[in-house]
Amino acid sequence: MLGNVLHLPLTFTEKKFHEWGKTFGDIVYIEIFRTPAIVLNSFEAARDLLDKRSAIYSDRPRLVLLMEMLRARTLVGLPYGDEFRKRRKWMFDAAGNKPTLRGYHDIQYREVRKLLHNLSQRPDQFSEHLHLYLAGMMLEITFGHPVKTLDDQLVRLAERAIYGINTAGRAGAVIVDFIPILRHIPCWLPGSFTRNAKVVRRHVEEYRDISYNAITSAMAAGVGEPCIYRSVLEQYGGGPTPAEADDIKGLAVDVYGAGVETSRATLSTFMLAMTRNREVQKKAQEELDRVVGRERLPNFSDRDSLPYVNALLEEVYRWNPTAPLLVPHRVTMDDRYREYDIPAGCMVIPNVWAMSRDAKYYPEPEEFRPERYLGVDTEAGDYLLPNNFAFGFGRRACPGQALADASVWLAIASTMALFDILKPLDESGKEYMPPAKFISAFASEPAPFGCRVVPRSNSAVAILDHLDVGFNNAA
Ligand code: HEM
């Protein structure tokens, strides 16, 4: 009845799966309650099944909590089918093609200037500034809604809904996903999770409805900026039916929910990695000085000339993969791989954590070492680059990857161009090393830590003094 559940820890499950992989091989069969599941602990197995056989490995298991109880209606949880294809196309049009991505550059440059300004004003609040950078960018891109502070009404609605979703339980890993009847546990029972689910569902609905109504009213009044929502709505000339409107509202969760927490966790990992690895930071800064100079900020056209900065970002993706177990896939037909029979309906759990620790590709995997990717022949073995697994696989791979990667890259290149990120000081004024400690969650990020963010030079101060942040009162 319970299958392997009693052997699974509630946190850092990916590490237990990795351990099992060392004993039993890179494909481990388990049963969660009565659901058969395979854990893929190697990049090769994940690529062979999820990429090369993506026609049958792109379904999701039934995500009862996320999709039915919380009614998030997000692409992440949709079964493979027509509705999924329509929503993937919206996401591709919104974030997956080059001309659209270029159209976001001005927003990204303005938001990064705000980030730099905020870092210079209140460096100890770096975590909030990173959050505002991403929340502002994603909300503007989705709704055409410029954001000045985290106190913005739409940000608060989005945050409340997404926080509720993330803390209610990890999709595909909560008991009700395996025993759906538990959704009927009465709300009045003490400690009942259905009570919390009801509250979160209301918050999700409020966020979806209020954002949708704001856009449709603006469109009716002929005002507002171009944005993802607007371009999808325009496809429904006479206005969408209520069912179509319900799908469109899912976009609010697709972009903000899937994009902000993950990108923020990645930037937070970058800050911790830099705090702990001053020599790496210095090498990146030398490269930035040589290629970009000290008189201006880096921009996207510099990217190809900055191999060390690019390698540093790859190492961020690997050192603490943001989604260590991705979101489970589901196979729709009986299949055979190597000597294993994989039954239709089997859950497939890609263990990106194990891939990121594969000593065959990454000797001393706990070390933060961008040099691993320099001089590597990517044509011959592109599996070495962690962006090949950190964003998932096959037809379910992250549709926001290019947008996320560009936004994160711009933030890290610009921050290192102007600031030194230094170890924090203890009470006696001595530097100390913050531990490499992470939180176990869908979007894994460092446990709270301190660092000092200090302008690097007089020319950095001069740039900061003249930044055009677009608003008079950046946060
Ligand atoms: C560093 C930031 C990000 C990381 C690490 C990340 C990672 C992921 C991963 C691992 C998946 C699951 C892939 C799979 O099941 O194989 C995913 C799915 C998804 N991501 Fe991202 N993501 C990031 C940013 C974004 C952004 C900015 C957006 C939106 C613009 C976005 C939208 C989505 C959506 C809608 C899905 C669901 C796709 C589906 O199920 O078909 N993500 N992401």
Describe the protein.
The structure is a single chain. The protein has 475 residues and is α+β, with helices and mostly antiparallel strands. The chain has one domain (5-465): Cytochrome p450 (Orthogonal Bundle), CATH 1.10.630.10. It has helices spanning 13-24, 43-51, 64-69, 82-95, 98-103, 105-121, 126-143, 153-168, 175-178, 193-220, 228-234, 242-276, 278-291, 307-319, 352-356, 378-381, 387-390, 401-418, 458-465; strands at 27-32, 35-40, 329-330, 335-337, 340-342, 347-350, 419-422, 452-455. A 4-stranded mixed β-sheet has the order 1-2-6-3. Helix 8 packs antiparallel against helix 10 (193-220) and helix 12 packs parallel to helix 18 (401-418). Protoporphyrin IX containing FE is lined by residues 75-76, 88, 91, 95, 254-255, 258-259, 262-263, 266, 322-323, 326-327, 390-393, 396-400, 403-404, 408.
List keywords for this structure.
single chain; 475 residues; alpha+beta; Cytochrome p450; 4-stranded mixed sheet; two-stranded antiparallel sheet; 19 helices; 50% helix; binds protoporphyrin IX containing FE
